[in-house]
Design goal:
Elements (H helix, E strand, L loop, with lengths): L1 H30 L2 E9 L8 H21 L3 E9 L4 H12 L8 E5 L4 H12 L5 E3 L16 E3 L4 H14 L4 E6 L3 H14 L4 E6 L10 H9 L6 E5 L2 H13 L9 E3 L1 H4 L3 H4 L4 H7 L3 E5 L8 H13 L16 H20 L6 H9 L9 E4 L2 E4 L15 E8 L2 E9 L2 E5 L24 H16 L1 H13 L1 H4 L10
Parallel strand pairs: 1-2, 1-3, 3-4, 4-5, 6-7, 6-8, 8-9, 9-10
Antiparallel strand pairs: 10-13, 11-12, 13-14, 14-15
Helix pairs in contact: 2-12, 2-13, 3-4, 5-6, 13-14, 15-16
The protein binds 2-acetamido-2-deoxy-beta-D-glucopyranose (9 copies).
Subcellular location: Membrane
Membrane topology: Multi-pass membrane protein
Protein name: Receptor ligand binding region domain-containing protein
């Protein structure tokens, strides 16, 4: 019996040891999953970005992190969102909060965001102090390419010199012979307006108007009144402002009756981040008046036709996170696909570091991004927005690996609809554009502000040209005729037709 007892005891001991061993390996398996925090400096608390877009971006960030975590067995990145607003001050505070030691969350690896250029500048400087990389999905201001000032800043978007080329392409393609550029004083608008002026380089007649902020509105109303009332009928207005400023400018333009035919506005990416769907409940009249205004938007990746992006959107749908982009296929969503690709940059770099037997640290991620790490650790993958690679000399999206694509968009009541595509500063497609207020405008498919195509306009136009060529006598005849035909001329397309 005693022998049996000891035999059983022996078995028990063996079993316990075996169990402990098994548990040990299990513990080892779970603890082998390393955890890091991936920060998101979200534009929440900003008055410049529409709340619906903030919600969309917050969700897109979580969706991207969660989808990517399902693919990685060795590590997890935990999403941690901190408000950064759209300006220098809030982002600076946000970046400090992001770096606070916090026992309840894993160590910080790097940060995604901010969306706005000034916010990205101050956050980059703060995070640089502790050696954290910052990768933005929407801050396009050219000064951020300065490697001496912002060595830890990277972005999956192109710098604004490429957007300026796309704007210049539109100026040429739409025959904008006389252009008034209205811009504001922030880092984004100031620099982009400057980039456009440099790129156009005298090939079109540009009038630059810098708007000051107002007391209780984002813009100075009386200054804007002055600019708008000095516009000539054939002037094209290019707005280089943020979404809130665009909305305020349009509200004033509406009061001044400068949204009516023949006035036509063209907005840069900040303007097309204005979401008409947000505005419809509070101001349906303004949105109606804006139908037909045009602008530029970074290529949205057409997620419906893109398997890589589709995965994230179906997860988003199933997880029921708010702000899922909907609407027609051609809708270009402001920077959401770039945000998804930005999150993926971190995962791709982590995978590559592990494949190189390098540990996942903020420093190694930084080296991979700034090009000082092994070549294979630099991000280079097919994402929602094409081939994603960073140019280490600028920290920006590499235009060599993926040519810059912008969409020419036109406002329909619920959204901005894609009407054309500009690749590398050249139009590859352009559908006919319908001008705003076309019930007052000629019913032709109008592709430019040039009224010479119109029947009456064409007659007057060629008459004018002939007269100029002929002589002063002919001009006198012309003015004589004009006096006699004032009634007839009030129907010229570039004279505002009263309602
Ligand atoms: C990482 O997080 C998971 C899930 O919370 C946990 O099971 C695991 O032990 C953590 N790993 C480490 C090394 O703490
Ligand atoms: C730590 O992080 C958690 C989760 O984000 C947050 O709720 C908490 O306020 C943070 N604590 C400190 C001291 O920052
Ligand atoms: C701008 O135009 C001037 C004169 O037309 C020309 O000399 C110069 O090379 C142009 N600059 C650029 C950057 O194209
Ligand atoms: C803005 O402030 C001025 C006085 O400073 C006031 O007259 C005006 O009504 C205000 N406008 C709005 C939209 O609040
Ligand atoms: C818009 O979508 C339609 C069909 O969904 C497609 O035929 C058309 O080419 C698209 N336009 C652009 C500019 O992508
Ligand atoms: C990583 O380490 C493993 C095993 O130690 C080795 O087989 C592999 O070649 C190493 N990889 C690189 C890229 O150094
Ligand atoms: C890249 O980042 C690493 C890690 O922070 C740093 O040591 C190195 O000097 C940086 N190189 C360049 C070219 O910025
Ligand atoms: C243009 O067409 C619409 C409907 O097709 C019509 O209501 C409008 O009066 C037309 N405008 C002009 C100037 O002919
Ligand atoms: C622009 O002008 C050119 C030459 O004057 C003309 O051929 C072209 O059709 C015009 N384009 C548009 C969109 O009006």
């Amino acid at each position: 019996m005693a022998r049996l007892d000891s035999l059983m005891q022996c078995h028990w001991t063996a079993l316990v040891i075996l169990l402990l061993l098994m548990m040990g390996t299990m513990v080892e398996v779970t603890s082998a999953v390393q955890n890091f925090t991936l920060g998101f400096l979200s534009p929440s608390m900003s008055s410049e970005i529409p709340p619906s877009l903030v919600t969309e971006w917050e969700s897109a960030f979580r969706v991207a992190v969660e989808v990517m975590n399902t693919k990685s067995e060795k590590y997890n990145l935990w999403p941690h969102s901190v408000p950064s607003g759209c300006n220098w001050e809030i982002a600076r505070t946000g970046a400090h909060v992001m770096m606070l030691p916090n026992d309840t969350i894993p160590p910080l690896l790097g940060v995604v965001g901010p969306a706005c250029t000034p916010a990205a500048m101050s956050a980059a400087i703060v995070l640089s102090g502790e050696g954290y990389p910052l990768v933005s999905f929407a801050a396009t201001g050219e000064p951020l390419s300065n490697r001496d000032t912002f060595p830890n800043f990277f972005r999956t978007v192109y710098g604004d010199s490429f957007q300026a080329e796309a704007v210049a392409a539109c100026i040429g393609k739409l025959n904008m012979s006389s252009v008034t550029i209205i811009y504001t004083q922030g880092q984004y608008a100031l620099n982009l307006a400057n980039n456009i002026e440099t790129t156009v380089n005298g090939t079109a007649n540009l009038r630059m108007e810098m708007l000051s902020p107002g007391d209780n509105l984002s813009i100075d109303v009386s200054q804007l009144d002055g600019i708008l009332s000095s516009l000539q009928p054939l002037d094209f207005v290019i707005l280089v402002v943020n979404p809130q400023e665009a909305q305020d400018i349009w509200a004033v333009a509406s009061q001044e009756k400068r949204l009516e035919f023949p006035w036509w506005y063209f907005g840069t990416d900040g303007v097309t981040a204005f979401n008409p769907a947000d505005q419809i409940p509070t101001d349906p009249t303004l949105v109606n008046e804006l139908v037909g205004e045009i602008g530029l938007s970074p290529y949205g990746g057409g997620y419906a036709q893109n398997d890589i992006c589709e995965e994230y959107y179906s997860y988003w749908q199933v997880a029921k996170y708010p702000g899922l982009p909907t609407g027609p296929q051609n809708n270009s969503r402001s920077y959401t696909p770039y945000l998804i690709d930005t999150v993926r940059v971190y995962f791709e770099v982590c995978d590559a570091l592990l494949a190189h037997n390098l540990s996942i640290t903020a420093e190694n991620v930084m080296s991979a991004l700034n090009g000082s790490g092994p070549l294979e650790t630099q991000p280079n993958f097919q994402g929602c927005t094409g081939l994603v690679a960073i140019d280490p000399t600028t920290g920006s999206r590499s235009a060599k690996d993926q040519i810059p694509i912008y969409d020419l968009v036109s406002l329909v009541p619920q959204a901005w609809e894609v009407k054309g595509r500009i690749e590398n500063g050249n139009f590859v497609t352009l559908q006919p554009l319908t001008r705003p207020n076309s019930e007052f405008a000629p019913n032709s498919t109008y592709t430019g502000p040039n009224p010479h195509k119109r029947n009456v306009g064409a007659i007057v136009g060629s008459l004018f040209a002939v007269i100029v060529i002929l002589s002063i006598v002919a001009i006198a005849v012309y003015f004589y005729k004009r006096r006699k035909q004032r009634e007839y001329r009030s129907s010229r397309p570039f004279v505002r037709v009263p309602k």
